[in-house]
């Protein structure tokens, strides 16, 4: 029955997509107006306060764990990055992926266009001060991400294929739903979260990313002969790139989480390190401007310059809003998205997976986004006092490309622009792969595991729409669905904060204080018993290897 409902829903989605593409401009104008109203309500009236509040609450509940225990979570993440227990597959659980693969797949989905175009857009719209509020969003977001992942592991289940399934859907249904008089509320919020995730996967996780890939490849590697040929209202170059992306993505996505994880494990570390090294070169060349860049970030965080906001100027609240929105768009802390892949990990300890949640936000925002911001602010492509842009740039990836061109240009060839086009391709393409899994898990929750193949096929097919569309509507809608995912997820995290506290305290008592107490691994008695046995074996092996 669930399979039939799933296929019916998929057919409806396809009809809506096709009919939407055939409508005239007024249709999209109406959609844009409605989306703006919803977006304003979701983000300005509820989302930002809930996001900041949750981060602060979880930071206080766990006694500033991300700061007070930074040495420990760093040791358990980057310190064990290539350890056998993190990179190796467990013989106890063949259906899961390794902790390193889970990290790479989660980073694949979070390290995307937002880390390049998103940062540039935040600086142009909100001034350098927006970067400061991205940092604040990341610091408190670390504990939100930690809490999501702790709950994801604690409430995860095995599906019909023996694969782990976890995420906000499960801790809303089984955690929040177990509270007195909250059974119906938990189910409703779980269903809403799954629906919002599916739609977000088509927007932020698919068409929006592909659109940026095509735009940047076409700009950096021009082939006039193809661009001048028009087919169905768009140029042939876009169609060819879209088809190539669709085919490559299809070969990976159809294979499921195992194939996605293997690809992410190989590509993500390379792309992140490559981008950081190239950014450090640009920053190093412009080292004399580093001090001015940081001064501008802190100065305009609390006293925004009216010039940055154009004729109307900027208020502090607007700068904070921009910083937080771009921060969440980049690291996704609070959306509950990365939990769905982290729950596939072979880890037994909820707290240990929580550490990877902290690390993901740290890498995404504190490192990668900061690199992008410093490249922009030190290279002279934007005037720090007035916000005036260099000629030929806009508030997106072209600004970053221009900054790289200032260092990487040989004989009139803009190597920097080519580098950014390739970086965006890798960042955005891996985001598509990661979000295909998020959407698959949400679809599985609603319609069952057997119908997920139909979702994957549909997800791959709509890549072509992202390649040929020209408006920014997909990005605006993505922003809205991000916020709509965030609300039920954060409600669940706040209500279940006592569980996060108990699990964290249990871990600290056992591992850091060496108390002989029973571990808290799952809310399901059978899974708890199974994971206890595995944890016992893993611990014994680790002790022997010391």
Keywords:
single chain; about 550 residues; mainly alpha; Amino acid/polyamine transporter I; 2 domains; two-stranded antiparallel sheet; two-stranded antiparallel ribbon; 6 strands; about 75% helix; about 0% strand
What does this entry look like structurally?
With 546 residues, the chain is mainly alpha-helical. The chain has 2 domains: 35-80 and 101-509, Up-down Bundle (Amino acid/polyamine transporter I); 516-546, no CATH class. The chain contains 24 helices and 6 strands. It has helices at 2-22, 25-61, 65-68, 70-76, 84-87, 99-110, 117-126, 129-154, 168-173, 183-220, 224-227, 236-253, 256-285, 290-302, 316-331, 339-342, 350-378, 397-405, 415-447, 452-461, 463-468, 473-495, 497-512, 525-545; strands at 157-158, 164-165, 230-231, 234-235, 409-410, 413-414. The strands form 3 sheets. A two-stranded antiparallel sheet has the order 1-2. Strands 3-4 form a two-stranded antiparallel sheet. It has a two-stranded antiparallel sheet with strand order 5-6. α2 (25-61) packs parallel to α22 (473-495), α6 (99-110) packs across α19 (415-447) and α7 runs antiparallel to α15. The longest helix has 38 residues, at 183-220. The radius of gyration is 23 Å and the shape is globular. 52% of the residues are buried. The model is unreliable at 13-24 (pLDDT under 50).
């Amino acid at each position: 029955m669930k399979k039939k409902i799933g296929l019916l829903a998929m057919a409806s989605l396809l009809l809506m997509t096709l009919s939407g593409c055939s409508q005239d401009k007024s249709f999209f104008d109406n959609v844009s107006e409605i989306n703006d109203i919803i977006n304003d309500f979701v983000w300005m009236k509820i989302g930002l306060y809930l996001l900041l509040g949750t981060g602060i609450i979880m930071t206080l509940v766990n006694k500033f764990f991300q700061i007070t225990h930074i040495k420990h979570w760093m040791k358990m993440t980057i310190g064990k990055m290539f350890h056998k227990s993190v990179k190796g597959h467990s013989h106890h659980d063949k259906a899961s992926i390794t902790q390193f693969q889970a990290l790479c797949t989660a980073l694949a989905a979070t390290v995307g266009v937002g880390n390049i175009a998103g940062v540039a857009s935040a600086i142009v719209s909100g001034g350098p001060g927006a970067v400061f509020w991205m940092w604040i969003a990341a610091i408190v977001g670390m504990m939100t991400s930690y809490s999501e992942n702790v709950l994801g592991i604690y409430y995860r289940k095995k599906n019909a294929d023996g694969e782990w399934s976890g995420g906000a859907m499960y801790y809303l249904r089984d955690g929040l739903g177990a509270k007195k008089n909250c059974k119906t509320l938990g189910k409703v919020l779980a269903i809403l979260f799954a629906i919002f995730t599916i739609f977000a996967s088509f927007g932020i996780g698919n068409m929006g990313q592909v659109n940026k890939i095509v735009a940047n490849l076409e700009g950096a590697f021009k082939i006039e002969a193809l661009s001048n040929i028009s087919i169905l209202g768009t140029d042939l170059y876009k169609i060819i790139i879209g088809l190539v992306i669709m085919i490559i993505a299809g070969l990976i996505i159809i294979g499921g989480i195992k194939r996605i994880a293997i690809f992410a494990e190989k590509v993500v570390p390379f792309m992140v390190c490559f981008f950081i090294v190239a950014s450090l070169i640009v920053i190093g060349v412009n080292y004399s401007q580093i001090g001015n860049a940081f001064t501008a970030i802190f100065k305009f965080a609390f006293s925004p310059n009216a010039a940055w906001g154009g004729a109307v100027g900027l208020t502090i609240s607007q700068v904070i809003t921009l910083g937080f929105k771009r921060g969440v768009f980049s690291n996704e802390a609070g959306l509950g998205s990365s939990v769905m892949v982290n729950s596939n990990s072979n880890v037994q300890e909820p707290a240990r997976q929580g550490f990877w949640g902290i690390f993901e936000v740290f890498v995404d925002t504190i490192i990668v986004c900061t690199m992008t911001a410093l490249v922009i602010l030190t290279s002279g492509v934007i005037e720090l006092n007035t916000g005036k842009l260099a000629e030929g740039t806009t508030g997106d990836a072209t600004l970053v490309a221009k900054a790289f061109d200032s260092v990487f240009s040989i004989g009139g060839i803009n190597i920097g622009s080519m580098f950014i086009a390739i970086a965006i391709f890798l960042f955005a393409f891996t985001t598509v792969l990661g979000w295909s899994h998020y959407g698959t898990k949400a679809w599985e929750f609603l319609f069952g595991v057997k119908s997920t193949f139909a979702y994957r096929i549909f997800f791959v097919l709509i890549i072509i729409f992202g390649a040929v569309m020209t408006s920014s509507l997909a990005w605006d809608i993505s922003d809205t669905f991000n916020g709509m995912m965030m609300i039920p997820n954060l409600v669940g995290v706040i209500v279940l904060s006592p569980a996060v506290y108990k699990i964290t305290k249990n871990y600290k008592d056992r591992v850091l204080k060496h108390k002989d107490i029973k571990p808290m691994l799952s809310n399901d008695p059978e899974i708890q018993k199974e994971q206890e046995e595995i944890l016992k074996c893993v611990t014994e092996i680790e002790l022997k290897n010391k």
